[in-house]
Amino acid sequence: MRRVGIFGGSFNPIHFGHLRLARHFVAVGLMDEVWLMVSPQNPLKKQHDLLDAALRLELARAAVADYPGVEVSDFELGLPLPSYTWRTMESLCRAYPDRAFSLIVGADNWQRFGRWARHEELLRDYPLYVYPRPGFEVDAAALPATVHLVDAPLFPYSSTQVREQIARGGDLSAMLPGRVVALLERRGIYTPKGNDGGGVLL
């Protein structure tokens, strides 16, 4: 069975941190594939500046072109709202019985994992890999047997910081693949400074 890591998020928008982290799990042999699961809406987050799901999906698909083993999935967009991870994982197992699924979460999400719906079942049924986030310490010795702390690259910034840079019309080349920047420009989401006066607020 192919080992597939599910890395869920709003990807609002996707950036190099997401991509390099996902690729890391494949490169070090923890997984055969990582699926970036674009979520309609995180039940624990309320975002007034959430880009349309179809656009976030398009941006993510453009971004993974140079990242072998990393794919983008729209599977969760076809499930009932709100987007609960337990439902996504159960549905994935039914749809893809030839895959062995695991979960990838950040240390910030691990600290509030007890608030996730049916979190006990998730811990029982799936391996869970925790990657570091600045400011969120994880005690590896205290983790349950199915949870693994991974020495993975830190996100250099957040999607919130990317959106702030977009609003300022600042340079995005260090944050986003060129294909993503070009799509944002074509969709009227981003206008670089010096081109019609600067950024566009999301």
Describe the structure.
By secondary structure, the chain is α/β, with parallel strands linked by helices. It has a single domain, classed as HUPs (Rossmann fold, 3-Layer(aba) Sandwich). Helices cover about 30% and strands about 15% of the residues. It has seven helices and six strands; from the N terminus they run E-H-E-H-E-H-E-H-H-E-E-H-H. It has helices at about 15-25, 55-65, 85-95, 105-110, 120-125, 160-170, 180-185; strands at about 1-10, 35-40, 70-75, 100-105, 130, 145-150. It has a six-stranded parallel β-sheet, sandwiched between helices. Helix 1 links the parallel strand 1 (about 1-10) and strand 2. It is globular. The relative contact order is 0.17.
What fraction of residues sit in β-strands? Answer: 15-25%
What gross morphology would you assign? globular
Q: What is the gyration radius calculated from CA atoms?
A: 17 Å
- Biggest sheet strand line-up: 3-2-1-4-5-6
CATH class: Alpha Beta
Beta strands, count:
6
Mean pLDDT: 93
Largest sheet: 6 strands, parallel
